[in-house]
Design goal:
The protein has about 325 residues and is α+β, with helices and mostly antiparallel strands. It has helices spanning about 1-25, 145-155, 160-180; strands spanning about 35-40, 45-50, 55-60, 70-75, 80-85, 90, 95-100, 110, 115, 120-125, 130-135, 135-140, 195, 200-205, 210-215, 220-225, 235, 240-245, 250-255, 260-265, 270-275, 280-285, 295-300.
Amino acid sequence: MTRFYLQLMTAATALITLCFSLSAQEKLIPGEGDVEVFYDSGNQFGVWHPASREFELTAVRKSGSRAGKHYVFTFKDDGSVVSDLGAVVGSVSKSGQMSHTQGGLTNVSVSTRYILYKRAEIGQINDLGAVYVYGKRAYYCSAPMDKNVLCFVAICAKFDDDLLAQYKKARDTRSQQATTKTPKPTVGRNATKLEIVGSEVKACDAKGVWIGSAKMESDGRISIYSAKSTVPVGVLSDGHIEFRGFTNYLSYSYTETTDTYTFNSEKGLPIVDVEHNSGSRSYEVRDRASRKLINTFPDTIDGRFGAMLIFGFFDK
């Protein structure tokens, strides 16, 4: 009997080991220099290995000679994309033109930050590696990565016309609900001067009158208050700018690159750059199209606070 129990325990241990082994295959462990890509839900989508130019998906094959192994796309120097089975499954040109020829999307391109399908905009991909489809964030990255590779694996290989139609319908529904439920936004005024007072950044008008303030929260968010409000009228967090209160109901976004913050309109179009000038130890707020200097403020203030000079947070 003792021998039987010993055999049973040995078998159970082997089964548990197998289960843990299979479970471990479900989530990839990135190495040094690798970039993790996540679904908007937070679940891992895959890992980009820039040294080998391979993108390894978290999903595993369920059948065939590589059953239980992760799907892998290898991006060749000639622009071809090869699967872990050795077949060419698509192409990506240096100019951003791409196609997945095994059931995914074809005629997709990346132009700066815009994702185009059959020459129509379907989404955006920013410098930090966030991918939006019809206004909804679908993926984000642990670090910036090759935009063309990200677009191929996240859009070309994962989307089809039906899924795109679902995202578009959801966007249209959100827009309709916002039109129905949301009061028409009024335009507030911008600050013309920023200065640090204690732990806050004070916003003043052209006459030096205090019209609002902002502070950095412990989690990295920036909360903005008008002079009359005790709750935030705006919050900057994770690339988004949300308006609150009665004055504004619009939503904007921002992206960060080296020494520059780019602020985008509610449609996601870049409108203003806040650029660091190390010589004058200041930030320069410039119109994106004309490059006209709008304002400046000291670089002792976080560049994101420049939003107070742009978006009309403060009551008139």
